[in-house]
Specification:
This protein has 236 residues and is α+β, with helices and mostly antiparallel strands. The protein contains 4 helices and 12 strands; from the N terminus they run H-E-H-E-E-H-E-E-E-E-E-E-H-E-E-E.
């Protein structure tokens, strides 16, 4: 009987140790925080400056594993390419009695990490861009301008018009599937010259990833870049 009692006591103690061990391991895993070292953060900041996005915001710590340096480099390249795409000149692609639609001009692929110095019309160093990931990175910005023409008064040589402007930046599906998206789109415009609409378009270009923290999958924002572009369009 005494032997049975000792065995039962030992089994309970062993069970308690196993439960404590599992609970302790789970707690440590949940409470663990991954961080980039100061050297890695400095390297990432230098990398962002190299790709022309020095103000980009990126994650530096998380309860899930952080992206590798190569993964962050790829994210910076893609976001820089999106920036460059949205800065392209616009051209008229559709016009009727009620609206005009302008889009950025389609160009051949970007170039990355070329040595020869070269600067494009917007002052961005284009020498660092090559064709990336086998897809066209030039995106489309659509600006819709609708106007209503009223009969001019006898003393007014110009007709009265009502103008509305909408601008949007659409990402290719291949980038949406990889977690890139646009948020906080805003459009401001003015019409000091009756023939020209001055438009300011702003948005945030973001990358989010689905990561496992504890036993839950959550969406984590990894990179965010603020974008702003001034566009002038002729509406006559």
């Amino acid at each position: 009987m005494k032997r049975i009692y000792l065995l039962s006591t030992f089994a309970l103690m062993l069970c308690g140790v196993m439960i404590w061990s599992c609970s302790q391991e789970e707690t440590e895993n949940i409470g663990k925080v991954y961080r980039y070292s100061p050297e890695e953060i400095s390297k990432l900041r230098s990398m962002a400056e190299e790709y022309g996005i020095p103000e980009v915001r990126f994650i530096t710590e998380s309860e899930a594993e952080l992206p590798t340096m190569d993964e962050m480099k790829e994210a910076f390249m893609i976001i820089a390419s999106i920036n460059m795409s949205a800065c392209s000149d616009v051209e008229l692609v559709d016009k009727n009695e009620e609206k005009m639609v302008f889009r950025t001009k389609i160009s051949s692929g970007h170039r990355i990490l070329k040595r020869a110095a070269e600067t494009n019309v917007v002052g961005f160093d284009a020498s660092k861009f090559v064709s990336c990931l086998g897809t066209n990175l030039w995106l489309t910005v659509t600006v819709s301008v609708s106007e209503t023409t009223m009969k001019p008064g006898q003393l007014n040589p110009y007709p009265e018009r009502t103008i509305s402007v909408n601008a949007s930046l659409e990402l290719p599906e291949i980038y949406k599937m990889r977690g890139y998206y646009i948020q906080n789109e805003k459009t401001h415009w003015s019409n000091g010259n009756p023939d020209i609409v001055n438009i300011e378009y702003t948005c945030d270009i973001c990358l989010s990833q689905i990561v496992l923290i504890g036993n839950q999958w959550i969406e984590r924002k990894t990179v965010e870049e603020s974008f702003s572009e001034m566009i002038d369009v002729y509406i006559r």
